[in-house]
């Protein structure tokens, strides 16, 4: 038995995990230590696609990208918002220290324009981060975007619905985002290039509404209760 | 003073021929459409010549392209020739319909001799695929007469010029018919004969005007010329004999016009950020296309790429008979900054302009927006979107910190469907807008919904509950 195994190993027909050398790819820190640890100490991959899968807005998905947005916009890199579902609120962004001169909002009318715009943004050296909310994307399109992302060296995050988790995707990083308890954001790594998926962590996001300092949420007696009662 | 005269024997023909990729037989027909005035070499080779009746010409060459002569158009074309000649000579006079006069005596030292001036002008003509007969004379009229007979020589010798003039027949010297006949009756046949007459006799026997004309040719009488001033705009036109149906066909003439624009901008040391392209159709209103770049630009290639993108997005509405490209807005050129001596730091400003211009050309200028906060208490008015501009200044953080706001604002408040599970802060009362009729009177709360979303909800005066934003 062991002879057969030895032969196999000598022939190099079996790939051995222990010899796996970690390839270092350019990354950008997420700004959250907990998440960085789960991502192998790296962060958002540069020059590759990332996907965030979530169903509802308002669970802290933008705050996940906010440290990166702050850092890039202050380094004079442009941040593109492509077809966002709601209005990125300028006073909130300004308050968080994002340089609004570097934020550009783009709305496209059809899928062809969307892909063309995204590709052009990805290939440009001025782009730091592209956040895109695609409508429908075929795997072929994602492949095309992945190639464009490789041509540049910026971070591209696609926000998609969670039902796409089943669909396979060439994106380098896929995160499944759900709301956790205490206003935290539960991040489930579905795919990570060069490593195993399945890491799981919960990122505290209470600070997005100034709630971090409270041990337990102080419940304000809302007028709603009066009305309901 | 020395004058250089350019006589364009078939300017209209040259103008039209250079906008065409394939050279086919072409003729310019007089206004009434009866006679051929000018014929291109291809047409001449097939037997068409100037002065021929149009019917004869068509039966000789059935596929003959025809252009009707138009004085206004000719004047415009002549002026555009003056534009480029102005780069070489300062004092230019337009001699409609087909001549340009330039003072070159003062340029000899600059160019290093008359031959160099001559060569420069010839080169300019060649670059623009124009045919012209050049001549030099010591007076404006002598230069003109010699140029029109095609005997121009590069010489500043007055005696030689006068000898050339002397051999000219009276008809070539452009005396009017009546004077011509009278001179011939006296027995004079060449200009030399007229020159040798005493001035007093000439005035008495013929007319003082004839004397003045002769003296102006000889240079014994002042012949002041008003210098032409170039316009502060750029305008180039291309006319087509056959209508162009595909936008692809417009790119060829555009390429030439844009490279002239580039040359013009380089010469002015200026840039531009907006071009106006007007496409004329036979039966429809002209199409006006405004091409904007997001920053100063002068390269023909960059403009052509933007125009190509526009053509891809908007196909032609109708076949095009002529196109005009004009630039009215000029910007001072900035020295490339942010690049050190060794070129190690990359200047991204240009890449930024290229990207934004490309996106704007395809998506339209209104699809790209920049956000900024506004000083208003009402949340829907506390932000604004404007067209993208490269700003140099750095926004200073405002001294009083902005209140906590959600990162997502809904396009309009949405009714709250369910009771929130948790309330965090509030109420924050926002009341205002009584001054412009957009009254807002609301109490805002931060609440968590059962789905885990953090919402910015409010109750208005009518006791309705709405979601206005998400803490994304």
From TrEMBL, chain A:
Signal peptide: none annotated. The keyword DNA damage applies. GO terms for biological process: DNA repair; negative regulation of cell division; SOS response. Keywords: DNA damage. Pfam families: SulA. This is SOS cell division inhibitor SulA. It comes from Marinobacter algicola DG893.
Automatic annotation (TrEMBL), chain B:
Signal peptide: none annotated. CDD domains: PolY_like. Keywords: DNA damage. Pfam families: IMS (PF00817). GO terms for biological process: DNA repair. The keyword Iron does not apply. Residues 24-147 form the UmuC domain. InterPro entries: DNA/RNA_pol_sf, Rev_trsase/Diguanyl_cyclase, SulA_CellDiv_inhibitor, UmuC. PANTHER family: BLR3025 PROTEIN, BLR3025 PROTEIN-RELATED. Belongs to the DNA polymerase type-Y family. This is UmuC domain-containing protein. It comes from Marinobacter algicola DG893.
